[in-house]
């Protein structure tokens, strides 16, 4: 796949995530947003706060990478490293295997407000801006540190794909939580 195709697909996916959060979660009452489907499950707010924490980490690195990337005159094939393929497989929404999250990225037991939702949407706007700005950038440079071990680096294109797939995974988790909210809590 070439860079323009990847970026276009990711933009479409981010816009779909924005639509889902805006239409399904933004108008919910506090009780529905905080509802946990089971003792170890995350609420809608926890799912989105988890994504906000990842966005706070990855978006500044993506911004620096795009700004510093050499300009390309035409789209190039996107290459994936072993680490990139493994990372993408790990967060792929189709991968139903549960994974432990890092403690500082785990929103469980956090005091969260509905402000988590507009913050998530702001991160999506920033991500869309960066995907557009990356149109002429070399996405095959290893520039983005991996959150859990910063000496490892993802290629810029891999990191964009990782962020979007990870968001899709947890927005779907939030949708599953919403489906289990008792009828009386949903307005």
UniProtKB/TrEMBL annotation:
SUPFAM superfamilies on file: DinB/YfiT-like putative metalloenzymes
Family annotation (Gene3D superfamilies): dinb family like domain
Coiled-coil intervals: none
The DinB-like domain, residue ranges: 26-174
Name of this chain's protein: DinB-like domain-containing protein
Originating organism: Rufibacter quisquiliarum
Lineage: Bacteria, Pseudomonadati, Bacteroidota, Cytophagia, Cytophagales
């Amino acid at each position: 796949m070439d860079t323009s195709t990847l970026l276009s697909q990711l933009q479409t996916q981010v816009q779909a995530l924005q639509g889902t959060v805006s239409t399904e979660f933004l108008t919910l009452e506090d009780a529905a947003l905080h509802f946990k489907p089971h003792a170890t499950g995350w609420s809608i707010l926890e799912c989105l706060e988890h994504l906000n924490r990842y966005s706070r980490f990855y978006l500044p690195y993506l911004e620096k990478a795009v700004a510093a990337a050499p300009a390309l005159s035409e789209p190039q094939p996107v290459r994936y490293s072993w680490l990139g393929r493994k990372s993408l497989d790990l967060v792929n929404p189709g991968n139903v295997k549960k994974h432990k999250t890092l403690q500082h990225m785990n929103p469980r037991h956090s005091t969260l407000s509905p402000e988590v939702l507009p913050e998530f949407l702001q991160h999506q706007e920033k991500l869309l801006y960066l995907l557009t700005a990356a149109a002429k950038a070399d996405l095959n440079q290893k520039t983005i540190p991996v959150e859990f071990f910063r000496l490892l680096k993802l290629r810029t294109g891999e990191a964009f794909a990782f962020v979007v797939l990870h968001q899709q995974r947890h927005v779907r988790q939030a949708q599953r939580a919403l489906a289990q909210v008792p009828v009386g809590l949903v307005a």
